[in-house]
Automatic annotation (TrEMBL):
Its EC number is 3.1.2.14. GO terms for biological process: medium-chain fatty acid biosynthetic process. GO terms for molecular function: fatty acyl-[ACP] hydrolase activity. Keywords: Fatty acid biosynthesis, Fatty acid metabolism, Hydrolase, Lipid biosynthesis, Lipid metabolism. SUPFAM superfamilies: alpha/beta-Hydrolases (SSF53474). The keyword Zinc does not apply. Gene3D superfamilies: alpha/beta hydrolase. This is S-acyl fatty acid synthase thioesterase, medium chain. Belongs to the thioesterase family. It catalyses: (9Z)-octadecenoyl-[ACP] + H2O = (9Z)-octadecenoate + holo-[ACP] + H(+). Residues 17-238 form the Thioesterase domain. Pfam families: Thioesterase. InterPro entries: AB_hydrolase_fold (IPR029058), TEII (IPR012223), Thioesterase (IPR001031).
Amino acid sequence: MDKVINCFSKRPDAVVRLICFPWAGGGSTHYARWGQLLNSSVEVYSVRLRGREGRTKEPFFQHMQEILDEVIDVLLPELKEKPFALFGHSFGAITTYAFAEYVKKVHNLEPVHVFLSGTSAPYSETRLQAPRRSQLSDEEFLQWMTSIGGTPPEILANNEVLKLFLPALKADLSVVENYRCSRPTHSFLSCPVSCFDGKEDVPHDLQAWKCMTTGDFTVQMLCGSHFYLKDAANEKVILDYITKHLETSEMDYL
């Protein structure tokens, strides 16, 4: 459990768990911090993928199903124990979708809310026509990373750090670029789905996410580019929104 899930603040009495999936190349610390910022009724589980942090000696995942199998194997008892919500940004949003679809289809479990950020739905034309970044040379890749922002300049300028960072990022992008799913012909969720995005990021087809649920669907645009959510003011907006909506969902289970 502790190998796959990073939980800074264990809250056995929490009413709902928020499970967060990392962006491409990302670790678990950013979201694990949220466990200290959200109120005591929410316990945050931040997913730690192979090949990073304490798992650097493990091979990267090559397929989305490998990620789902590992995370669900670890979390299934918790998913059955109490209500859960999901959050993911960019690659993490695609993983969130795959996770929600799989646990509904295979285990008939459904989150109380899905929060998605920073990317088009995996079955949208915008996503299917997106360039394959994982195949770029390191030089081209760094140029792209610089253009989207969010990576500290000291990392981009440090070749030793890049040697550690780039393989994880490219591996995750390869997973998502090879992940294929059909546009849902019938909504498989009934919970609310909320989308966030940066106003200065490349345009994403956020509306395409709507067909995954019969529940409420909202889109909120915040100032910033691809990693807008790292901005403290934007993070506060997101966490306040999550708190408000998870508190509302909690009332349904009292």
